[in-house]
Amino acid sequence: xxxxxxxxxxxxxxxxxxxxxxxxxxxxxxxxxxxxxxxxxxxxxxxxxxxxxxxxxxxxxxxxxxxxxxxxxxxxxxxxxxxxxxxxxxxxxxxxxxxxxxxxxxxxxxxxxxxxxxxxxxxxxxxxxxxxxxxxxxxxxxxxxxxxxxxxxxxxxxxxxxxxxxxxxxxxxxxxxxxxxxxxxxxxxxxxxxxxxxxxxxxxxxxxxxxxxxxxxxxxxxxxxxxxxxxxxxxxxxxxxxxxxxxxxxxxxxxxxxxxxxxxxxxxxxxxxxxxxxxxxxxxxxxxxxxxxxxxxxxxxxxxxxxxxxxxxxxxxxxxxxxxxxxxxxxxxxxxxxxxxxxxxxxxxxxxxxxxxxxxxxxxxxxxxxxxxxxxxxxxxxxxxxxxxxxxxxxxxxx
Length: 399
Hints:
This protein has a 6-stranded mixed beta sheet with strand order 4-3-10-9-8-7, with helices on both faces. A 6-stranded mixed beta sheet has the order 14-13-12-15-11-16. It has 11 helices and 16 strands. About 2% of the residues have low confidence. The chain is α+β, with helices and mostly antiparallel strands. Helix 2 runs parallel beside helix 3. Helices cover 33% and strands 27% of the residues. It has 2 domains: 262 residues, L-amino peptidase D-ALA esterase/amidase (4-Layer Sandwich), CATH 3.60.70; 125 residues, ArgJ beta chain, C-terminal domain (Ubiquitin-like (UB roll), Roll), CATH 3.10.20.
């Protein structure tokens, strides 16, 4: 049930006419009793910031981190739309507030889709009351469907944790995202909910921690969106919970959603978990990993199921980090292809590379690539994908 798995939340998704063909394009996630609860958000660092991001930030600041609902539309990003875009985002919140009987600042707003087009407000004026009427405790999947753009599947996740007294609390989430996936964060929207009782400041800190190791490790094409938003609402029905246990559950949901986005990235056939270790610092590890993950030559080799280590070694050496070819080791899964400055000879004995087993490994959807720079204790993980013909087909036109 995703965002409706935690006690106290309802959701809905409908078609209101933003997209063609009667496809769902309007979603709502709300507290079941429409009362505001603790809320937090993290947003894109792109300075070309979309109107809904501006408005949601304002509302969280105005309420001290409280919200009763999140209204989301797909098919139109409401980005690069000037003052009219801000007015339209404000109106989406006001329409939702009127339907739920709350204050407009207690509504957060998200949009996703094409940049530079005005929202079809007539469709939203008619649709928002309908989506509010459709709110249901089992409406999480409908909401997840309604926020999809080039996604091919809904993205939902749930984590349950047991407390020492035997009671449980739950974190649920929905997300969308299939391209322009690059920290910070990715072309993505995500809404998480929990029945844990968490104060707004603690909730924001927990969300930042959860996002840093999940959504912020994701890159598909090196492009950063104008609309990236991750929101969390904490209803409190399960009562207070240990802070670290809550962070762990929220991180699990964010990680699941991030991997689902990589698995559904436009045209991708491989999801690659690229871990760089042995760097001089964590920051250098992250830089080397991200540079390599965004290299088109490396991405194409993954699409061709070619474990060609030369492109990876070259990118690592060009990343501007502490580097020595003589200490470099590269491995796909358990298959070491380059060790301490030399390619590993092909063969069947100890210390040799089993070419057949490696070829089989490269056919997998999930590839684990480890690069050890041999320069220190720094480590970082990036989740990325290959580059395919289908990605180009999807992105060579806007409609």
